[in-house]
Design goal:
By secondary structure, the protein is an alpha/beta fold. The chain folds into two domains: 164 residues, Rossmann fold (3-Layer(aba) Sandwich); 293 residues, L-fucose Isomerase, Chain A, domain 3, CATH 3.20.14. It contains 16 helices and 19 strands. It has a six-stranded antiparallel beta barrel. It has a five-stranded parallel β-sheet with strand order 2-1-3-4-5, sandwiched between helices. Strands 7-6-9-10 form a four-stranded parallel β-sheet, sandwiched between helices. β6, α9 and β7 form a beta-alpha-beta unit. α4 packs parallel to α5, α10 crosses α12 and α12 crosses α13. The chain is elongated. It starts with 6 loop residues before the first helix and ends with a strand.
């Protein structure tokens, strides 16, 4: 790799590889009892050693920015304040022994940090050698019960995971709870760009902007067509040539794509990327029909949209802010995400044809098959043809997720698992698409989805993720519906 810092090269590398999510910044609050410091001070050395082991384990899943063993309210409050000031995303609480709930409860109620209670101990089993000393070194579980009972009574949300700290299945569950808690912090920092206006009349994804911030966290950032047009005018010849060359390396460009076609879409792709980056948005949404409203914009920026999706930016179509936020959040937590929509049911085979306008995530393409770059007419807007990457999605398990606004203004997650099939229509279809097979009968699944209030937009993430999503919904204080 060149040692010269080239902004264009950095952008292209981000597009090709996707931006890896930053690990969560973790704080660890270990708790014990002031009485032990006075009566059995030798026990504190064992608790400190256990605390150090917990710090080491947490370091596998994030950056530990602050930690301490605390035995009274004053120590707890100082430690929590220090962890918070260090910029932690998540506060992990471990009971090294029994600890008075009222010594930690005030600080845990005041801190805005999402909480994960890690209920573990050094001892894995009680054998014939078990005695009072081993009990003294391994008796945090009733302290967990005391604290969690108080947290539950006050309505304070927390994650809880119990098991032995050397057990890999338990550690995988711990990692999943940390991701879910990290989702709270990410949501509170998230900005969603809305370019232009939403598709008029689509009521299912309408929302209250104040409620979005207060009940979930993401904020809306307006992006204008004028900004896009002005950014497009500033694109230089050298960077345009570099963008086109990168596309030719990444895609198999179809023969009817002219240099003028490619320059038009590539210039707009650079402009869209610059606008999104200038506003610092984590996700964005647009209505495909608005771009002809500014005569300086000749087509729809679907090529740029697909590049941003592949780089890890959240996205949803038609001005759907809430789904863009969810797509961005799930992509950060669980891997490449992909906005999509159900279009046609295959009731005989319990399958669904999935697509949308021109959005797709080519990071989810079948390995070894080069996407093609096709010229597509701008049928649903006023303008010239745009270029679009088309490809076969990699088959395998997937989880489809929707976020819906409830009647009381709260949000709910609705999710089901399926399998992406090895399927592609080739030249017969000019938009990214795939087909899923569901487990069981399709008709009842569709009934349950709509009865749960699911909107007509979804996103998907690789793998079987229902348990992970249920933990995320819990930490976000959202209702969870498992279809």
């Amino acid at each position: 790799m060149s040692t010269v810092i080239d902004p264009q090269a950095i952008e292209q590398d981000a597009i090709e590889q996707g931006e890896p999510p930053a690990p969560p910044r973790l704080g660890l609050l270990s708790l014990s009892l002031d009485l032990y410091r006075k009566v059995v001070p030798e026990a504190l050395a064992a608790y400190r050693a256990s605390h150090a082991q917990r710090v080491e384990v947490l370091g596998r899943y994030g950056e530990v920015v602050g930690h301490d063993l605390c035995c009274n309210r004053e120590e707890v409050e100082r430690t929590v304040a220090r962890i918070q000031a260090a910029g932690a995303d998540v506060l992990v609480v471990v009971l090294q022994s029994y600890s008075l709930s009222l010594a930690s409860l005030p600080a845990l109620l005041r801190t805005p940090l999402p909480l994960v209670i890690w209920n573990t101990q050094d001892l894995g089993s009680i054998d014939d050698g078990f005695d009072a000393d081993r009990m003294m070194a391994n008796h945090g579980m009733h302290g967990v019960q005391d604290l969690c009972s108080c947290l539950r009574r006050t309505g304070r949300t927390f994650g809880l995971v119990s098991g032995h700290w050397r057990n890999e299945a338990h550690l995988a569950e711990l990692a999943d709870w940390l991701k879910a808690a990290h989702g709270v912090a990410l949501s509170r920092r998230m900005k969603v760009g809305l370019m232009g206006r939403p598709f008029a009349g689509m009521g299912d994804f309408t929302f209250d902007e104040v409620g979005l911030i207060s009940r979930w966290g993401p904020a809306v950032e307006p992006l204008t067509l004028a900004e896009l047009a002005e950014a497009q005018a500033r694109v230089g010849e050298a960077e345009l040539a570099a963008e086109i060359e990168a596309d030719r390396e990444r895609f198999a460009v179809e023969p009817d794509v002219t240099d003028e076609d490619h320059r038009r879409s590539a210039r707009l792709a650079i402009a869209l990327r610059r606008v999104v980056e200038a506003h610092g948005v984590d996700a964005f949404t647009m209505h495909f029909g608005v771009f002809g409203e500014d005569p300086r914009i000749e087509t729809c920026p679907f090529l740029g949209v697909n590049h941003l999706i592949a780089a890890g930016r959240g996205y949803a179509g038609e001005g759907d802010v809430t789904m863009a936020a969810l797509d961005g959040l799930l992509g950060r937590l669980y891997g490449p995400a992909g906005f999509c929509e159900m279009f046609t049911a295959d009731f005989e085979h319990n399958q669904v044809f999935m697509s949308h306008m021109g959005e797709g995530n080519y990071r989810l393409a079948r390995p070894g098959e080069r996407p093609v770059l096709r010229k597509v007419p701008y049928t649903f807007g006023k303008g010239r043809p745009f270029l679009l990457p088309l490809f076969r999605y990699a088959p395998g398990p997937t989880t489809l997720v929707n976020v819906a606004v409830r009647g009381d203004g709260r949000f709910g997650l609705i999710a089901f698992e399926a399998d992406v099939l090895d399927f592609n229509l080739g030249e017969r279809y000019d938009s990214p698409h795939f087909k899923i097979a569901v487990k069981g009968e399709l008709g009842p699944l569709l009934d349950r989805y709509s009865r749960a209030g699911g909107t007509h937009h979804l996103t998907r993430i690789p793998g079987r993720r229902l348990d992970s999503l249920e933990r995320l919904a819990h930490m976000l204080e959202m209702e969870f519906t498992r279809i």
